[in-house]
C-alpha cells in the first residue's frame, strides 16, 4: 500500500546500508589477510601511474562534487611507470582519497598530486578538512583505530582504510606518511621507490 511506503522505505535502506558496510568490512579483512609482507614478483605489472591516478581523479571529482568539495589533481606531463600490483595500488590511493572527501566539510578542497623524483615517486593527498589531533596521529594506521569525533561517528567506517593503505604501500617497498593540523587539514604522502623489475 502506498501509505506503508514511508515506513518500509527507510528500513529497507538501513538493511541495504548494513549489507554494503558488511561487504566492505569482509573485503577489507580479506585484503589485510592476503597481503602480509612483500608481493610475489609475478603479481607485479608495469603500471602507468599518471593514468591510474587520472582515472581515480575523474571518478572522485563526481563523488566530491556531490559533497560540494573541489578535487584538484596535479599530474606531471612526464609519464611515470613503475612495477606494481595495479589493483592494490589503486585501492591504497582510493582509501586516502575516500578519507580526504569524508573528513572534509562542504566547501573544502582536496588535492591529488604526483611528484616524480629520480629514484622515487610521491603521491600526495592534501585536504582542508577537520584534521587529526596530534595525540591520535601515532595510532591512525592501526587496524580499527578511529578518532572519536562527531564526524567520524556520522561517517561510520571501520578504521581499516589506512591500515590497508599502509600495508599495500609497504608491500611495494614504499612508505606512507601523515601530517595534520587539527581544524585545518591533513596531508598524506605515499612514497614509492622507482626501480627496475628484477
Ligand atoms: P574505513 O576506512 O574502514 O571506512 P575510517 O575512515 O574510519 O574507516 P581509516 O581510513 O583507517 O578508517 O582512518 C582512521 C581514522 O583516521 C579515521 O577514523 C579518521 O578519524 C582519521 N582520518 C583519516 N584520514 C583523515 C583525513 N583525511 N582527515 C581527518 N581525519 C582522518
Ligand atoms: Mg577510511
Q: What does the radius of gyration come to?
A: 18 Å
Strand content: 15-25%
In the sheet with the most strands, the strands line up as: 2-4-5-7-6
Low-confidence stretches: none
CATH topology: Heat Shock Protein 90
- Based on the coordinates given, report the CATH architecture: 2-Layer Sandwich
Measured as a percent range, the helix fraction is 40-55%
Please identify which CATH superfamily we are dealing with.
Answer: Histidine kinase-like ATPase, C-terminal domain
Mean pLDDT: 88
- What compounds are bound to the protein? adenosine-5'-triphosphate, magnesium ion
Q: Which key features would you list for this structure?
A:
single chain; 198 residues; alpha+beta; Heat Shock Protein 90; 5-stranded mixed sheet; two-stranded antiparallel sheet; 5 helices; 7 strands; globular; binds adenosine-5'-triphosphate; binds magnesium ion
